[in-house]
């Protein structure tokens, strides 16, 4: 979904001479004169950031049908242990692996089926684990394409970062406006978040709408989240820009 073109930035500066300040007592006359009141620059600014997914879920399915119940269970159990051991050896925490099992009788045989869901935060480790299991277990295990998503913490971080970036862009714009008129930017008097937008990406979900034909990079791109933010700010104008500071 393409982001619509942002509206033109609005810049309003009040540079009219302010009312004369109250006289300064003789004993407090040292230092710079007081800042005149009512001199402000009003600026709006925006920012847009993106964040790739920080988690991937991989599902592995395996099963066995035997005449004896114990044989069916044992066949699946050996492969489950190998999968878990391979993941642990490559740094996957135990709590990131979930195993579900289903045991049933089909005609005159016993059928054991299992599914292992592994959550990865390191996509390099994910590829290593999947490649190893495909090599060692072959067709006895079915590995689904990885499902990429964002944790709520990652989305919250993106929202904070884009807001801070918009405020930073707004302040730099105000500085440039003041410098254009030979003024010095003062402290912020008002900062207001006017609009935020989010699109693309998705949070944790067991369902993935991505076709199986997509490459790994295409899946990551489809799961990338975008956010934009526009803020309005009012800054104080302190007065004439110091010539020495300008030269520096």
TrEMBL record:
Family statement drawn from the similarity comment of this UniProt entry: Belongs to the IRAK1BP1 family.
Species per Swiss-Prot/TrEMBL record: Chionis minor (Black-faced sheathbill)
An annotated GO cellular component: cytoplasm
GO biological process, one term: positive regulation of canonical NF-kappaB signal transduction
Protein name in UniProt: IKBP1 protein
Record keyword Cytoplasm present: yes
Keyword Ribosomal protein listed: no
Keywords tagged on the record: Cytoplasm, Nucleus
Cell compartments where the protein resides: Cytoplasm; Nucleus
Region: Disordered, residue numbers: 22-50
Gene3D superfamilies, per database record: Protein of unknown function (DUF541), domain 1, Protein of unknown function (DUF541), domain 2
Superkingdom: Eukaryota
Gene: Irak1bp1
InterPro entries assigned: IRAK1BP1, SIMPL/DUF541
């Amino acid at each position: 979904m393409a982001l619509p073109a942002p509206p033109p930035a609005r810049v309003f500066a009040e540079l009219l001479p302010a009312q004369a300040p109250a006289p300064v007592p003789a004993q407090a006359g040292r230092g710079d004169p007081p800042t005149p009141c009512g001199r402000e620059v009003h600026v709006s600014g925006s920012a847009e950031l993106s964040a790739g997914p920080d988690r991937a879920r991989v599902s592995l399915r395996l099963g066995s049908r035997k005449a004896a119940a114990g044989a069916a269970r044992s066949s699946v159990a050996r492969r489950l242990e190998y999968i878990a051991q391979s993941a642990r050896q490559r740094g996957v925490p135990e709590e990131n692996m979930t195993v579900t099992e289903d045991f049933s009788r089909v005609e005159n045989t016993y059928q054991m089926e299992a599914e292992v869901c592994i959550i990865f935060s390191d996509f390099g480790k994910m590829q290593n684990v999947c490649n190893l299991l495909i090599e060692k277990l072959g067709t006895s295990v079915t590995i689904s394409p990885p499902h990429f998503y964002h944790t709520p913490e990652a989305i919250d971080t993106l929202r904070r970062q884009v807001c801070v970036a918009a405020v930073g862009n707004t302040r730099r714009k105000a500085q440039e406006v003041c410098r254009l008129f030979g003024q010095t930017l003062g402290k912020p008097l008002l900062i207001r978040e006017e609009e935020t937008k989010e699109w693309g990406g998705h949070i944790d979900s067991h369902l993935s709408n991505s076709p199986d034909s997509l490459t790994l990079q295409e899946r990551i791109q489809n799961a990338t989240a975008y956010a934009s933010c526009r803020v309005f700010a009012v800054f104080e104008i302190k007065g004439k820009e110091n010539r020495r500071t300008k030269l520096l």
